[in-house]
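Appendix B. Chain record.
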Amino acid sequence: MLYWLIDLSDKISLFNVFRYITFRTGGAIVTAALFVFLFGPWIIDHLRIRQGKGQPIRPDGPQSHLVTKAGTPTMGGLMILSGLVVSTLLWANPRNPYVWIVLGVTLGFGFVGFYDDYLKVTKQTHAGFSGRTRLAVETLIAAAACLAFVWLGRAPLSSTVVFPFFKDLVVDVGWFFVVFGAFVVVAAGNAVNLTDGLDGLAIVPVMIAAASFGMIAYLAGNAVFSDYLQIHYVAGTGELSVLCGAVLGAGLGFLWFNAPPASIFMGDTGSLALGGMLGAIAVATKHEIVLGVIGGLFVLEAVSVIVQVVSFKMTGKRIFKMAPIHHHFEQLGWTEPQIVIRFWIISVVLALAGLSTLKLR
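Structure tokens predicted for this chain:
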């Protein structure tokens, strides 16, 4: 809404600052963080009263969790999404279609996660609703968003897959791009969901990835910078930096309450929404493969589960002591803070590697 103040800039020159994406991104960070800081305690108390016993703890998970995490409320993603939406509506350009598409994916995935959390809490079971149904709904949301991206983009770039480290290596896959893009969005959402298993483990890598893609979106949406870096220019995607800033701010606020020992868990409400958002931004900016590098920690977590399941079904043996892989390290004797902080470090390194693709071409 503040973007409309630009219309008054001819009378009050100070309002010119609202033209700059960097200024509004900074405003989004501060607004989202303050919102979650101020309303977080009320949301936590409300969820604790409504949920009673809190999030059910998996009996087949680490036994220590049955003691240390029992009774902690879930659906903390509502805090993040509230701060994200308020901040985005306040600071983003309402005329930009990319903002609404990505926000739609975020809220759509958030609703799917919320319903899953709701079933777990009300039935006091770690199983939510049907996995196939959940994936089907996520795929429909993601496919609709990718169709919109293709329609908005410039042909033939809108339907191409861009490979990092190469200036001109692009493959036009036609309408199959919708399938590819939907896969990226759904995979990102569920990979972040699998990562969310320890206090603070998922939110910081999400913030690191959001900050990285905030920079990528800004550069890809700027004709001068994209030409200098020899990356593909996608008009309008620069505004997605504001959404990334809102995630960063809301994530900082949430981390205050999610730091060990957590007062609240993100739940599927937050992890699916944030992962889907990262996937949608990667598709919009034509950096889908780079997401696999910057979000490499999420990929590792998801692959560890796939490998564990396939190995057990084919050979009857498990590769890891427990999956996802962060539980494997718990079984090896690593403490929760050790795992979380070391995984944060890995996320930073991977983000730097992913950002290096902007110049190494």
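Further analysis of this model is presented in Appendix C.
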